Amino acid sequence: MSRTRFGWGLIGASTIAREWVIGAIRAQAGAEVAAVMSSSAARAADYAKANGIPKAYDTLDALLADPKVDAVYISTTNELHKEQTLAAAAAGKHVLCEKPLALSVADARQMVEGCRNAGVVLGTNHHLRNAASHRAMRAAIKAGRIGTPLAARVFHAVYLPPHLQGWRITRPEAGGGVILDITVHDVDTLRFVLDDDPVEVTALAQSGGMAAAGLEDAAMAVFRFGSGLIAQTHDGFTTKYAGTGIEIHGTEGSLIGRDVMTQRPIGSVSLRHETGEEALPLAQENLYERALRAFHAAMRGEGHPAATGEDGVWSLAAGVAALQSAKSGRVVKIDPGL
Ligand code: NDP
Questions:
Q1: Within 10 Å of residue 170's Cβ, how many Cβ atoms?
Q2: Do the Cβ atoms of 238 and 225 come closer than 8 Å?
Q3: Cys-Cys link to 56, which of 48, 85, 106, 238 (CB 3.0-4.6 A)?
């Protein structure tokens, strides 16, 4: 009989866990947040108390030795993800890891291999492919409703809220910068909606006054996909009033998603074609709860996470290529090496 109860250990006393993922874990039948680990004992204890978590640890080994922990959710800063994933896999724990999986594509591939060899599930927390809007767009494209997709535009320039204006804008060594933070989400969303992979990219980055240490706080990129489709993305930490969206334009129609590049289950999608415009029905649902549901099923041996480790390698490969392009001024090939 497959197991139905899973204890989770949080690696990282993070904002994203507090705001979204703890609740999404607790929304799953048979799931418990059993422990949290922080590099600071005081922060671990405070976080555990504030979030009703029974155990607090200040070392990875202690968390991984806890028999109540079957799976870990890694939401530390990005330079730590690889080592923590490999240690968790070696301890036989399933891993849901935040994006970007790592700082290099080779490291991310190693994480996929490590989890595969250990026989544990690896998921990447690309939440957007769980949105009703993006699922409706993917279904409409698969049903042929816009003909052949030719172009896409992603509007994901937002304002980084003051409580998150930390390592993202000050620490290159932690994987700061908007490309590894947001462009990777765009690429994952496009791969999901289009069922297609990017092959090359050209990008320009900007330091518009918020980010320091040579980090970019806005970027525009153009990706070419395997089908020949071209996609442009605009990502930012500095844009207060732009709003978000995604558009897919095909030979027979256009899909227009508004307010859909967000953590919240909101927004709309309309389909424009020869005879007019219609709103697609959206069964809105918490994106993170849906991701955790798929992850729990995968741990039971039923299916795979909403975004797999391989999906995380792909989005990182595209992000790394965009960074290289912004630096070199050249078009860069995207190669996940999978
Ligand atoms: P936070 O800055 O909230 O947390 C990251 C780390 O910072 C924590 O693990 C913690 O280390 C440390 N930290 C937190 N508070 C303090 C403090 N007061 N003083 C010193 N250190 C502190 O990051 P986010 O939650 O925004 O992001 C974490 C990860 O999640 C990143 O990989 C990010 O890319 C990803 N993310 C994903 C999202 C998604 O929707 N998929 C959305 C947002 C982020 P320690 O654990 O040692 O205490």
A1: 13
A2: no
A3: 48
Region 129-288+317-333: CATH code = 3.30.360.10
The Cβ-side half-sphere exposure at 306, using a 13 Å CA radius, reads 25
Find the angle CA(62)-CA(65)-CA(68) to the nearest 5 degrees: 110
Best probe residue, ligand 1, of 11, 15, 82 (max atoms within 8 Å of C-beta): 15
Pocket of ligand 1 contains residue 179 by CB under 6 Å: no
Best probe residue, ligand 1, of 75, 78, 97, 101 (max atoms within 8 Å of C-beta): 75
Are 166 and 306 within 8 A, CB to CB? Answer: no
Phi, psi at 217, each rounded to 5°: -115, 5
Ligand 1 pocket, 164 CB below 6 A? Answer: yes
How many Å is the maximal CA-CA distance in the chain?
Answer: 62
Kindly give the distance from the C-alpha atom of residue 203 to the centroid of ligand 1, in angstroms, as a whole number. 27
Query: What's the CATH number of domain 6-127, 3.30.360.10, 3.40.50.720, 1.10.357.10, 3.40.50.2300?
Result: 3.40.50.720
| Residue 126, pLDDT above cutoff 70 | yes
